[in-house]
Amino acid sequence: MTHNLLKKAKEVCYRLEAAGKILSTAESCTGGMIGEMLTAIPGSSAVYGYGFITYSNEAKMSLLGVKKSTLDSFGAVSEQTVEEMAVGALEKSGADIAVSVSGIAGPGGGTKEKPVGLVCVGLACKGSTPTSLKLFLEGDRTAVRQKTVENVFDIILKNI
User: Fold this and answer.
1) What one-character-per-residue DSSP string does 90-154 give?
2) Neighbouring residues of 96: CB distance < 8 A, sequence distance ≥ 6
């Protein structure tokens, strides 16, 4: 899986550079894995300037400007929260594209409404309305986190 992630990270960096775009990330459940894969690519500093690891709700609020009311109403793992995370990352970094993730990687923490494997991904691009989507991923904690990164790279590639 790591080889595939590195291959996709390389493609993301190449496409960002070709488009003259800068990316920022806001990660919760992946704990910096998106940034880790991107920075494994030589020259990635030309296209990746900011990576926010906001695992706690307090970090989401203080670093990215996620509203307490959003967290109280929808929870950390919600499309509303990841949209606010992505917008905050975009605004704080001055990037052209920002992606965010928040999810339940397991093995515990899931509920009927929000099961283990639920990951929300947010996307914010300069001049566009932020968007989000829910992923339902299978596997253990490592697999959910790796599949999240792979999906995020696909989303970035579709939106460069």
Assistant:
1) HHHHT-SEEEEEEE--SSS---SSS-TTEEEEEEEETTS--EEEEEE--SSHHHHHHHHHHHHHH
2) 21, 22, 23, 125, 126
- Which segments in the chain show pLDDT lower than 70? 1
Q: Hey, what are 11's tokens?
A: 């493609």
Tell me the one-letter amino acid at 126. K
DSSP 3-state of 26: strand
- The β-bridge partners of 26 are 52, 100
CA 57/CA 99 separation, integer angstroms: 17
The structure's pTM equals 0.97
Q: Map residue 23 onto helix, strand or coil.
A: strand
Token couple for 114:
């929000």
